[in-house]
Amino acid sequence: MNRSLVTIADHTREKIEYLVDMASEFEKHPNRRLLEGRVVATLFFEPSTRTRLSFETAANRLGARVIGFADPKVTSGTKGETLKDTIMMVSNYADIIVMRHYLEGAARYASEVAPVPIVNAGDGANQHPSQTMLDIYSIYKTQGTLDNLNIYMVGDLKYGRTVHSLLMAMRHFNPTFHFIAPDELAMPEYYKLYCKEHGIRYVEHKDFDANTIADADILYMTRVQRERFSDLVEYERVKDSYLLKRNMLSRAKDNLKILHPLPRVNEIEYSIDETPYAYYFQQAGNGLFARQALICDALGITLEEVKNDNTIIY
Amino acid sequence: MKRQELQVAALQNGTVIDHIPSSKLFEVINLLNLEKIRTSVTVGFNLKSKKMGHKSIIKIADKFFTDEELNQLAVITPNVSLCIIRDYEVVEKKTVELADNLVGIIKCNNPKCITNNEPMLTRFHVLDHATGTVCCHYCNTQQHLDEVKLCQ
């Protein structure tokens, strides 16, 4: 059985809850020797320091050894080696491959040719399941549940793969989505249709102010990037409309948490960092536990084994 | 006496692919790998047709394709007529059907898809047979059969 993780969008409700449970076990005890004797390869065909450090820390804290590369310039890919050849070669050395690639579909293909499991750490604009998993884990931790939440998505909803994956993965949990974006970066029809097909409620808003977000449990902010606009006049007009300011939180619910996949530029006012609503840094920290769970699951280690693990380092 | 002549000679045994839009003839030839065939192949190009104005036709002697091979044609020419000939008689008529999965037939039109950058077979899932909407198995890009190119 191929245990690779290519996308989280197809996971069942049970599987997502199972992985959330496993991540909470790792949060209780992140340091273990559970993967002692195993080798994890991290192949980053596209640099991504944040994601790579998180995966490598996850593997290291479980006692695995890590090999790999952080920069594609040092690999034979630049000599014309195919992805398949690189994957086959590394499969001789490692028990699992964590892979980031700039081409879409690279993770699916790698999972079909590799004799060891592949964990997708992002393939172009396509999928980034470990980000989705840490988003879900963050939502669960801060709200105590995944069910019946008001989730507001703000900013670039057209190209933002994190919002698309989150939307699909949350379909089991009866969410109400609110989309707040400029016209040029609005949620694509495909995902609105997806919501309709799965009976997910969604509301689209033009305004981004204290009243609009007063009901939010989760405010998922993303960056509006200049290069996404075909019309720069339009960019200049809307660029400041999707910034979250502190005074916009005047009517916020107590349980509101603000998430952001990071890096942030200016879309969340810095003074918000001190409020209890800010959660983006802890969210990134949750990535460690989420990724420990994803690596172990891909290696065939069960939740039961994690719970009864006697290799915990206190 | 009115001269009535077949535009293309009759076939004793084999397969006739008729009503091919002339613009698609060479794609059909490529798709079925006809240049590798050893038996005689008769090709009629730009023939007069009551139904279509102009059409093309291919007659392949002593060759019987599998349904899988023939169904590939649905990607480019969903309306062709297929006749199986034995001893000068039409023994079977077939229509082509778009399969649920298309492997190695069409190219993905996303330039950043792995299939356009790696020596590998493409793979598509047909989402809607009526409209010809397909989805790349690898990059998940949805596209329409009218706008895709064939693999060589």
Q: What would you note in describing this structure?
A:
The complex is a heterodimer of chains A (314) and B (152). In chain A, 35% of the residues lie in helices and 14% in strands. By secondary structure, chain A is α/β, with parallel strands linked by helices. Chain A has two domains: 13-127 and 288-307, Rossmann fold (3-Layer(aba) Sandwich), CATH 3.40.50; 130-283, Aspartate/ornithine carbamoyltransferase (Rossmann fold, 3-Layer(aba) Sandwich). Chain A contains ten helices and nine strands. In chain A, helix 1 packs across helix 5. Chain A starts with 12 loop residues before the first helix and ends in a 7-residue tail after the last helix. In chain A, the strands form two sheets. Chain A has a five-stranded parallel sheet, with helices on one face. In chain A, strands 2-1-3-4 form a four-stranded parallel sheet, with helices on both faces. Chain A has helices at residues 13-28, 49-61, 83-91, 106-113, 129-143, 161-169, 189-197, 232-238, 280-298, 303-307; strands at 39-44, 65-69, 96-101, 118-123, 150-154, 176-180, 201-205, 218-221, 257-259. With 152 residues, chain B is mainly β. Chain B folds into two domains: 14-94, Aspartate carbamoyltransferase regulatory subunit, N-terminal domain (Alpha-Beta Plaits, 2-Layer Sandwich); 101-147, Aspartate carbamoyltransferase regulatory subunit, C-terminal domain (SH3 type barrels, Roll), CATH 2.30.30.20. Helix content of chain B is 8%, strand content 35%. Chain B has two helices and nine strands; from the N terminus they run E-H-E-E-H-E-E-E-E-E-E. Chain B has a five-stranded antiparallel sheet with strand order 2-3-1-4-5, with no helix packed on it. Chain B has a four-stranded antiparallel sheet with strand order 6-7-8-9, with no helix packed on it. The longest helix of chain B is centred in the N-terminal third of the chain and has 7 residues, at 25-31. Chain B is elongated and about 55 Å long. Chain B starts with 13 loop residues before the first strand and ends in an 8-residue tail after the last strand. Classes of the chains: A alpha/beta (314), B mainly beta (152).
